[in-house]
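Example record

The entry below shows one chain as it appears in the dataset: sequence first, then structure tokens.
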Amino acid sequence: GNEFLSNIREADAICQVTRCFADDDVTHVNGHVDPSDDIETITTELVLADLQTMEKQLPKLQKEAAIKKESRPKVEAWEQAKAVLEEGKTIFSAGLDPEPLHDLFLLTTKPFIYVFNCDQDQLADADFQAKMEKLV
């Protein structure tokens, strides 16, 4: 939960290992293997964590900007980032400049590295590879 998220806030990238193989001896939390659902779930959790951070910090910056004009561009950048998050997108995928957001240590400003944990048959399957490539 929160402890895990706090440990990755200072990382330069997030590596997401996604299970693709089926094995009755290895249970999946949802009862079935679906890499698309898993990627969406993780992304949603990170977006929600960043939204929570924004909702706590943005009002403070807005108050500061009412007094200090030099804070206004930062407010605009934060508001733009919040709008992206509210759409369920990551800040990195939206191409926003992460610099004005640096103080927030947001998770979705980081690039994602996707690793698909698959079996040998899937590894040799061009259709499977194309399907996984479309996910990211």
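Notes for this example: Strands lie at 14-19, 112-117. The radius of gyration is 18 Å.
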